[in-house]
Write a structure and sequence with these properties.
The protein has 104 residues and is α+β, with helices and mostly antiparallel strands. The chain has a single domain, classed as Fe-S cluster assembly (FSCA) (GMP Synthetase, Chain A, domain 3). The protein contains three helices and three strands. It has helices at residues 4-15, 58-69, 95-101, and strands at 33-38, 43-48, 77-82. A three-stranded mixed sheet has the order 1-2-3, with helices on one face. α2 links the parallel β2 (43-48) and β3. The longest helix is centred in the N-terminal third of the chain and has 12 residues, at 4-15.
Length: 104
């Protein structure tokens, strides 16, 4: 049986495979993931945001997140919740994302 940390690390690693189709950078490095929680029943809650409110990619990204996590054996179901507070800013970008987007 894997530890909570191992499962969480696996979840984050899988989320790095979800690439924002507009920015071509993964959602983890974009700082879009606010929280990940896995309960005892195997329900994984992913709280995330988008770079702009009203982004047309909401359903597409939620589906991509669900597909990315489906191979993790501890996860029975994925619930993606979009949150708008705190508001996303470029301060949430990783160093990698800032370099890729030309932000200094």
């Amino acid at each position: 049986m894997r530890s909570n940390k191992e499962v969480r690390d696996d979840i984050i690693e899988k989320l790095t495979t979800v690439v924002d189709p507009e920015l071509n950078i993964d959602i983890v490095n974009l700082g879009l993931i606010y929280n990940v929680d896995l309960d005892e029943d195997g329900i994984c809650l992913v709280e995330m945001t988008l770079t702009t409110m009203g982004c047309p990619l909401t359903n597409i990204l939620a589906d991509m997140v669900t597909r990315a996590l489906r191979d993790i054996p501890e996860i029975k179901n994925v619930d993606v919740e979009f949150v708008w507070e705190p508001m996303w800013t470029t301060d949430r970008l990783s160093r990698y994302a800032k370099l890729a987007l030309g932000i200094h």
